Amino acid sequence: MTKITFIDAAGTSRTVEAEDGSTVMETALKNSVPGIEAECGGACACATCHVYVDDAWVEKLPKAEQMEEDMLDFAFDVRPNSRLSCQIKVKAEIDGLVVNTPEQQG
Q: pLDDT tens across 39-94, in order?
């Protein structure tokens, strides 16, 4: 299984197993990772699953599509490595992905 590490704003790290074909957001919810609210359930219609992708992983992920970029306008403290976790698909190639959750969701 693919492993994803979530680091919260306080620096607490949680590594969880993710099912290929799911999303990083679904993985967070399934594993009760704090800091991911996912109010729209993964429809890319809010910004409450906002994460910061670790710099080592930014170029390894597919670029955000325009709809995701538009929704990030509603996120709190957007940075160049900001992504919506509902738009990052889990697959073997992202095994070891590290994301940080913001202090608050948008």
A: 999 999 999 999 999 999 999 999 999 999 999 999 999 999 999 999 999 999 99
How far is it, in rounded angstroms, from Cα 83 to Cα 75? 10
Q: How far apart are CA 79 and CA 61, in angstroms?
A: 16
pTM given for the model:
0.96
Total domain count for the chain?
Answer: 1
Whether residue 106 is contained in a domain is answered as: no
What residue type is assigned to position 21 of the chain? Answer: G
Query: In Å, what is the CA distance from 47 to each residue of 3, 6, 31, 65, 87?
Result: 23, 17, 20, 14, 11
